[in-house]
What we know:
- The longest helix is centred in the N-terminal third of the chain and has 6 residues, at 33-38.
- This protein is mainly β.
- The radius of gyration is 25 Å and the shape is globular.
- Helix content is 1%, strand content 49%.
Amino acid sequence: MEARCSKCVLPELCFWTIGPVWPKISSGILLLALVVFMSPRHALGTEDPLILTAPMLVEEPAEFGNVIVYGAGELRVSGVRDPGVRFSGNVLAIEGGRIVFEDSVVQFLSEYHGQFALVALDGGEIEVRRCDYRVPQYVQHGIVTGGDGHALIEDSDFWFVQLVPMDESLIEARRLNGSFEVVVQNEAQVLIEDIPRDSGQGSLWVWPEFPSGSRAVYSPPSTGPVEAWSFPPPGSTGIGQHCTLRRCEVLLWPMLVREGCDLTLKDIPEENRVIVGLHLPNSLRLEGLVNQAPVGTGNVEISDRSIRLENASIDTWNVYPERDAEVELQDSVVGEALAFEQSTLRLYNTVVDGTGGFFGSEASSTVTAENSTFTCDVQATGNSTMSFKDCLVRALGQGEGSIRVGAYDTARLFLGQTVVAGTEEGSAVLSLGGRGELAVAALETIPDRAPGPGETLPLRGWVGVYSLDPGLTRQSWSLSVGSACGGPTGLIASGNEPVDGGILADWSNSDPGKPMRIVVDVQDGAERWLSFEWKVAEDLIPVTCAPREGQLRPGF
Length: 556
């Protein structure tokens, strides 16, 4: 089931597994390469990895899934022309293993942000020279080093890639065209020169990290051409990483700010594009974070770290809950929000505008959003659960292209009375991958009163469960009505197939003078339930009435 539309309102259900997505650079800051690699759900078309312990030379077009190169092993791709060597999995060099791509077309067939990566860990080495290196357009892809791994990348053309050195590893990148996001963590080192190689053929983001226990005063240079720059800033303490740029074009200056640090941002004008990314391992509530803040002086109210502004402006806020933190974000405008590990993220009356990346959940995280707006990619991966209630997901328009709203791996995405809309300039595409599941519950019009005796009120809308796994689409749903103040409900309709903009039920013989609620329950093929409700004649509900809120039932 595959289609593309220029305007997509939620229940028209357009699926496009690999298609154009939001055409700005996305971040996805915590690309945990080893965890990603070891999970077999990330392989397409292969169950067992190719394991190399001796040299292997590839000189003709070929296709691979996951590849592990270690010890005396070497994977050398040399002189391979279009369509090149295509990978539908992760490629890992470890314990002395070497991966060399030279004078070749190399393609990673990732369907969503961060799905596959090229990785060097614990003495592994990567070399990329004079290559045409491709991933599906605007899909995030990582070249990652960890331990004491090393990556050397020179004289090549890219579309978009993340360079992610971690631990004590090293990445050297020289004379490259394309869009690059460099995420430096721990005590890693990175040397970046001549990006882009040719004027106008690329740009760069660099995410340095202010770790726990660090102290620094930081004034990033202006965006645009940068002849030379290095990190950490003079006089700082507790920062082990090192980053050097020479002759680069910098699109913006983001940073990772961790709990327990003491950071002063100084002398940053409004025209400079600065992103502050907040790693959030502790439970807390954030309110009133707003992008494009004017120049100011004072403290930013975040309880587990110190951030001070001295004549400084912040262009974009990003938030990253992790571990088992429970984070609430209210009345804010942020550029990116991503939930990791077992964290919980709740959004209320908030806008995620995509200026710092996209909106996502991964691993076993849980995300809920109410009365919020998203103008960027929305992505649920891993075994995460994402639930929207009364939200709007809208393409950016103004020539910005498409956005994609998707559920992948075994993730679940629930759209309750949520509109996914395109514009004349850009489409909004609903997408599925693996055993990802999309569930929908929406009414075309929410009644303002219940039908009286002898009166019938058609309830039109959309309800259903959608997945590429036919086992999950063996569904059932029911629609019932009852008092808005709680108590039992009465069944008025049920079904075993999705309804796309049709009549869900004919509601009759109720009491138009009482506040009511309409409840939809949906069960997927794995017997997981979800529920959503609408209030009817809400202005009649007494103050003491406490109706059930729309919620996910346990197990979904």
